[in-house]
Amino acid sequence: DGGITQSPKYLFRKEGQNVTLSCEQNLNHDAMYWYRQDPGQGLRLIYYSQIVNDFQKGDIAEGYSVSREKKESFPLTVTSAQKNPTAFYLCASSSLVAALSTDTQYFGPGTRLTVL
Amino acid sequence: GQQVMQIPQYQHVQEGEDFTTYCNSSTTLSNIQWYKQRPGGHPVFLIQLVKSGEVKKQKRLTFQFGEAKKNSSLHITATQTTDVGTYFCAGSHRLGQNFVFGPGTRLSVLP
Questions:
Q1: In this prediction, what percent of chain A has a pLDDT beyond 70?
Q2: If you measure CA to CA, which chain B residue comes closest to A42?
Q3: Which residues of A touch B31 (CB under 8 A)?
Q4: What is the SS3 string spanning chain A?
């Protein structure tokens, strides 16, 4: 059963704590992405990775960090430096490198993070 | 910066009525994608348009890409309750750049 998984679905953290969101895909996709979605708004790109051990900042990377040690995994850490971390976080992957800008992105189910 | 805008923000229709959402870019797009997000769900790819003036159809959905490649539209004929959700366009302004998502149009269909 192929796809993208994100866990957990809901996550609560206290202010000032770092938290790591997981994203795993078994689609053999090269590119992976992290987006943030706020209520009533579109998706904003946080980070993306086209290949293992390499990643690039998106439009709103401040306060976030990522790693890409394996092709299948692209975890996102929301650090205490992120001023408004409460949001819906979506991970996506695509089969071609992002530079071609032509490939479909497949999204995971998302993690809803609430910082108290 | 480069922006992708969508109108309307919300649309309420009676079941059976038509629906259209419009996507506009401040600069020329190399290609555009459309996604649908059901309430509580994640975006799901619908279609991609690449050519100037391109029109594609998927059953009751018709997608258009403007001649100048700065705008696009999604039209749904005879809406059904299963069409409920938020429709996003996502544009790429040139090769080598990631897609920029519009804010979406939230569609409600009253039975």
A1: 92
A2: B103
A3: 101-102
A4: CCCEEEECCEEEECCCCCEEEEEEECCCCCEEEEEEECCCCCEEEEEEEEECCEEEECCCCCCEEECCCECCECCEEECCCCCCCCEEEEEEEECCCHHHCCCCCEECCCEEEEEC
Q: Is the pLDDT of residue A99 over 60?
A: no
Q: Within 13 A of B44's CA, how many CA atoms are on the CB side?
A: 10
Neighbour tally for B18: CB within 10 Å? 11
Strand partners, A90: A35
Using CA atoms, how far apart are residues B40 and A109, in angstroms rounded to an integer?
A: 9
Q: Which residue has the tokens 């269909």?
A: B109
- Confirm if A94 and A31 have CB atoms less than 8 A apart: yes
The rounded distance, in Å, linking the Cα atoms of A30 and A98 is 9
User: CB–CB of A57/A47 below 8 Å?
Assistant: yes
Tell the residue number behind the tokens 């990522």, with chain if given: A66
Chain A residues with CB within 8 Å of chain B CB: 33, 35, 40-45, 48, 58-59, 90, 98-102, 104-110
Q: Provide the residue type at B25 as one letter.
A: S
Cβ count near B13 (within 10 Å): 15
Read off the pLDDT of residues B11-57 as tens digits, 9 standing for 90 and up. 999 999 999 999 999 899 998 999 999 998 999 999 999 899 999 99
